[in-house]
């Protein structure tokens, strides 16, 4: 099975760093009227990063990878700040905060616009890495068989994974170092337990990017496993945690 050396996957972090620096420099200038641009940049960031995470998790279960993943997540949590990034979370926010349909659709459009840009950057990186590919490499596989998902099992895993993403905001009252630590730990554990089965995207847009790249999953599988599963988990999480916090008047 053809693949790349494990170290080569780190190349996906290069555009991530560049986009992160751009976003950080623009953040003070991004007023509320520019929230669509902010959402686009942050979605692009997350698509590139989650592609790298899922590509490695589906192929290796090395403890070193998850330690590095935790450190990387801990250092990046503050980058996203007020951006939604997760499509299923965007849908839940629009319901819970009573957003207008136009605002929800515009933010969703900003996320979707990041998809072709991320795909172009990922394809470019794979062309750059092509000289390092070997038919007998034991590195990261880039074949279409890297993702084999059963629909029912995949739906349940994505729903549970997305549900667990709702835990940190429910446990930690304010954003800060503790919140970043809990969120990074939570995501790393989700990736550790569920990543080898579905990639543990917990984000419909990230799953779409990955599946389009490998052109492996059918539209039905993409919608039922990743979109329906993730949105279901996000809605259950909102029902269990956010409504409960509101009743208890927890800030």
TrEMBL record:
<keyword id="KW-0812">Transmembrane</keyword>
<dbReference type="GO" id="GO:0016020">
    <property type="term" value="C:membrane"/>
</dbReference>
<feature type="transmembrane region" description="Helical">
    <location>
        <begin position="6"/>
        <end position="22"/>
    </location>
</feature>
<protein>
    <recommendedName>
        <fullName>Aquaporin</fullName>
    </recommendedName>
</protein>
<keyword id="KW-0472">Membrane</keyword>
<feature type="transmembrane region" description="Helical">
    <location>
        <begin position="192"/>
        <end position="213"/>
    </location>
</feature>
<keyword id="KW-1133">Transmembrane helix</keyword>
<dbReference type="GO" id="GO:0005737">
    <property type="term" value="C:cytoplasm"/>
</dbReference>
<dbReference type="GO" id="GO:0015267">
    <property type="term" value="F:channel activity"/>
</dbReference>
<dbReference type="InterPro" id="IPR023271">
    <property type="entry name" value="Aquaporin-like"/>
</dbReference>
<dbReference type="InterPro" id="IPR051883">
    <property type="entry name" value="AQP11/12_channel"/>
</dbReference>
<feature type="transmembrane region" description="Helical">
    <location>
        <begin position="101"/>
        <end position="125"/>
    </location>
</feature>
<feature type="transmembrane region" description="Helical">
    <location>
        <begin position="225"/>
        <end position="242"/>
    </location>
</feature>
<feature type="transmembrane region" description="Helical">
    <location>
        <begin position="151"/>
        <end position="172"/>
    </location>
</feature>
């Amino acid at each position: 099975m053809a693949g790349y050396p494990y170290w080569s996957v780190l190349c996906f972090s290069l555009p991530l760093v560049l986009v992160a620096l751009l976003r950080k420099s623009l953040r003070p200038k991004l007023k509320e009227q520019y929230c669509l641009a902010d959402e686009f940049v942050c979605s692009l960031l997350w698509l590139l990063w989650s592609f790298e995470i899922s590509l490695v998790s589906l192929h290796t279960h090395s403890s070193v990878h998850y330690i590095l993943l935790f450190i990387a997540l801990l250092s990046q949590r503050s980058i996203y700040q007020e951006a939604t990034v997760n499509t299923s979370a965007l849908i839940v926010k629009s319901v819970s905060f009573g957003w207008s349909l136009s605002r929800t659709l515009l933010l969703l459009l900003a996320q979707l616009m990041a998809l072709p840009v991320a795909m172009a950057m990922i394809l470019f990186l794979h062309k750059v890495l092509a000289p390092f590919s070997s038919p007998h490499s034991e590195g990261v596989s880039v074949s279409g068989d890297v993702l084999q998902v059963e629909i029912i099992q995949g739906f349940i895993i994505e729903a549970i994974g997305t549900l667990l993403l709702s835990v940190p905001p429910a446990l930690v009252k304010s954003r800060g170092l503790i919140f970043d630590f809990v969120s990074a730990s939570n995501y790393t554990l989700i990736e550790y337990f569920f990543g080898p089965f579905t990639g543990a995207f917990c984000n419909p847009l990230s799953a779409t990017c990955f599946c389009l790249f490998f052109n492996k999953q059918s539209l039905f599988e993409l919608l039922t496993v990743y979109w329906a599963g993730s949105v279901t988990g996000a809605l259950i999480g909102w029902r269990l945690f956010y409504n409960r916090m509101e009743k208890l008047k927890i800030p």
